[in-house]
Amino acid sequence: MSTMMAAPSLVRCYSSYRNDLMKSKWKCKAEGEADVVVIGSGVGGLCCGALLARYGEDVLVVESHDQPGGAAHSFDIKGYKFDSGPSLFSGLQSRGPQANPLAQVLDALGETLPCATYDSWMVHIPEGQFLSRIGPTEFFKDLQQYAGPNAVHEWRKLLDAVLPLSAAAMALPPLSIRGDWGVLSTAAARYAPSLFKSFLQMGPRSALGATKLLRPFSEILDDLQLKDPFVRNWIDLLSFLLAGVKANSVLSAEMVYMFAEWYKPGCCLEYPLHGSAAIVDALVRGLEKFGGRISLQSHVENIVVENDRAIGVKLRSGQFLRAKKAVVSNASMWDTLKLLPKEAVAKSFSDRINTTPQCDSFMHLHLGFDAEDIPNDLGIHHIVVNDWKRGVDADQNVVLISIPSVLSPNLAPHGKHVLHAYMPGTEPFDLWEGLDRRSAEYRNLKAERSEVMWKAVERALGGGFSREKCEVKLVGSPLTHERFLRRNRGTYGPAVQAGKDTFPGHSTPIPQLYCCGDSTFPGIGIPAVAASGAIVANSLVSVSQHSNLLDAIGI
């Protein structure tokens, strides 16, 4: 699991070790052709490209910016190494059939990701503040204190119903899925015995509940008659952190998977020792290890369609890159549509994209400051909810704070802390649309709309924190998202409601054009986009190649 998104500053200055690596390895010239050209080096695009290289395909990933990673990149200012997006991770070091999709991709690439582990985060809510611990029992203590015995009873009832469902939700390894009928061999037949066994172990009642895995999670809550306001609010918050929507819109399967990672014995949260950039570095290493290439500062102007097939891309420089087998777009659905010639796009395809609702955008606050007067027991993560009644998806209401230098001191100068606070997908783009980024109006709006984040940071860090003493202060707006991440209206992604609509698949009406990332199934978040990239890669190779890979990594 992870929460997302992007950076309040462009990738203009970075840590020296990544700059050296970029100059020596990543800044290759885009050559004229490849089997597969991948547009965009977000986590989904890198997972797709690296797996295709692992399969033996000639892959070229083209990236508009001067370093890879998309919303997961990091940047360096005055020795402070900032995450631009994801900060809450679990399952990165898991292995086997039920592992996190990203972990399965890294396993296939032979890459490891050193992580620090922890089991809690600070929660600041209207009822008070407490250290929330993951695991099967610790949260009951918090519920008893802040919500009462009825909340404890309902939470226990929920865990008893949901945790058995995880066997069904996790029965098919994400890496086994492909987008054609070959899935009957790589997934259905291969894992039918374990799936059948899991249903037998669940019992009739849980097996019946498993039929709701593709329905909204709120339906499971309603069936269990869970009505405690604190429990419902808490679940909405978890759902929003996971997928950008509340429990009435998130797939039950996603929530069940998250519960299995967070509320089973022995579970933990993880943070990469070198920040989220370490994930990107590992994927790029895997890509290049198997002969894949990545070309930075290679902005795609349009996807070239000839004889009704995608045959390559044209760069802003005028260079044409031929794709002999496929073009894969890791851009959002709206931005992909802009890259296509209008005459090549079926009206039904464009209509669906143009009518798909969007999640709102982000506000960000990146700070670098002295740790001298900050509590020694400061946790890495803090979640601030100002008003439950407004809903967790209301603007200016929920602030997430990550201080990764607590676990990874190398991300800040000695004796300093690096902090990223953000409002996750709740900032309306309409407030910002059309503003001149150089104007006083824009600066004033940034100051006004970032104030809630400053107050949340002050609440979380206590009296020892001072705004005036911060050595680095960066505020990012929805226009930052739109400009630097090529995100239409700075959006978090599609606001798809489970039970009413589904995320699009990965093929398109245009032969040889595929899509991966958070505009495709299974949706928003690091595990989801990693799975989408893997599905596309698997779909572009033979069933025997796919099966051999599953054998090689023991799933």
UniProtKB/TrEMBL annotation:
Domain Amine oxidase: start-end pairs: 44-538
Single GO BP term: carotenoid metabolic process
Isomerase among keywords: yes
Pfam family, one: Amino_oxidase
GO MF, any single term: isomerase activity
Keyword annotations of the record: Isomerase
Hydrolase found in the keyword field: no
Full protein name: Prolycopene isomerase, chloroplastic
Species in which this protein is naturally found: Vigna radiata var. radiata
Gene name for this UniProt entry: LOC106765712
